[in-house]
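pinned: reference chain
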Amino acid sequence: MRIRIAIALCCLLSVTPSANAFLEDLCQSRGSGSLTLGYCVRPVCPASFGPNRACPAQLFDFATIKPGRSMIHADSTYFIAQALGYRADVAYWITAYNEVTDYAQYKPLDQCGNEASTRNSGRKYISAYFNGFQRTQLKTDGPLDHYVVSFSPNGQGTDVHGAGGVQSLYPLHYPQPGYPANIDDTYQKTLANMRQWAMQPGPEPGTLCTVGLTSSNGKTCLSGTITGNVPLIMKSAKGIPLNVPAGKKVLNYDKNTDTFDYYEALGAYLKDKRKTIGTLWKDPNSDSVPVQLARVGLYLHVLQDTSSHATYCGDEAPTPPGGSSPGTFMFISDPRTNTVKVSFGSSCASSPHLASHVQETGTGDEPLPLRDYVALNNTVDELIIFGNEVALKHPGWIVNRELLPPNLVEKNQQGFTANDLKAELIGTIVSGTPYSRAEIYESGVVTSPLQLADALQRLHALNRALGSFSDTLRKRSPHARSFIALEPMPGNAFDPQDRTVCWR
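pinned: its C-alpha cells
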C-alpha cells in the first residue's frame, strides 16, 4: 500500500491543469466506530499547493476512501427526476444504476451513516452487481465510459478538435435545435450508441457496443481491439494500459472463471434474486427493476461524465499550430485488424481527478464549477426526453404528469418549459455569454445545497430543498389534492434528526 501511495503521490503533486470529474463527496465518517456521514476527501490543503494540486492528506483520504456516493450523480439526479414527475421508486432506480457505473454495485447509505447490506433493511435497495461499466475495470472498456473519447475518422484528431471540430465545453450542443438532437454518431460514438440503447421503450436488448463502435450498417458491433495508455502524469506516453476487445459491450467480467457476460444479459441480472431483490416497491405487481430504468441510469452517468470532462482527457483540444499536443481522440490505426488506438493529449493525466473533485465540493459562497451546471442541465433535458419517449408508455412511472414538459420547447401543465425548469432547478447565468466557456452561474434549487462545505449539512440541505420544492409544486398545481408529494431517497428524511428511516 505504501508503494502505491508513494507512486500516486508523485502523480498527484505534479502541476496539472484544471480537470473535471465527479467523485464521492458523501462518505461514512472516518471517526472510530462512528456511524455518521462526512467528507470523502478533505477539502482543504495548505495554500502553497494551489488549486490544481492535491496534498498528501488528500491523497491518503483518496487511497482509503470510505463507502459513499457522489451527490451530483445520485442525489441530484433523484431530485431532478421527481421534479419532472417521476414516481419516487422509479427515480431511485435510475439513480442507483447511475451509480453502478462507478461502483459495479450500489449499496446506498442512509442519513445515519449505515451502508445497506443483505443483513439490514436496506437490502431491497441494493443494485445488481456488474462491472463492465466500472471506472477501474481494465478487462473491459469501463474506463472509457468515464474518459469519454471522441472518434476521429481522419485519424489525426483535426476533425474532432479546433474551430471546425466537435470539441467544446458543451460537447453535445450544436446550433439550434441543439442538444440532444445532435449527438453525432460520427464523432461521439460512445454517447450516440449508448443513448439509442437507453431510449428504447421496451425491454428488447437492442445494440450496445464497446465505445459505441458499430459496423457500417449500425446494427452490429465492430470487432477488433482497443488499445492505449491512460496517462498518470502529464506529457507522458506511459500510463495504465488499455487492451480490450471491441465488439459487444461487456456487462460483467468474472475473474474467477475468466468469463464475460454481455449487455443482453442485463434484464436477466435484474430478475435474478441471487443478484438483487430490488423491485418497484410502489407497484404491487413488480417483481424486478425494469431494464429500461437501469439502462437510462447507466447512460446518464456517462453523459454526466462527458459533460463534466469536456475540458479534460475526453475532449482535450490540441495546442495551437506548432504546439506539442494533438488533443485526445480515438481512431482506427490498422483497418485490416480494426485496431482502435486511443490517443491522449499531452495535458491529459489521471492525477487532476482528485484536485478537481475538491474544486467542486463545498464551494461555499462561490458557485460550483461550470461543468457541474452543464452536466445537470443535460440531465434535465434527457430525463424530459426519456419521460416522454419511454416512461409515459409504462403506467405509473410518471405520477405527476403536469410536471413533465412534452418536449424541450413547449410548456408543462404548470406553465414551465425545459429552460424554465433548468433555470429554477440548476441555475441561471449571471455573467458571460451562453456556450462561451466563461459563464458564471447563480445556483438553483438543486445546486445551492451542493455549495455547503460540510458534507452532512449538504445532504440535509438537499433533503430539505426537496421537501420545500414539493410544497412549491403542490401550490402551483391546478390539481393540488391529487398531487403526489416528492419523497426523500430511501434511508433519508426531511428531518435530519429522524432515525426511524435508517437501515435496521
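why pinned: The chain has one domain: 2-482. The chain has twelve helices and eleven strands.
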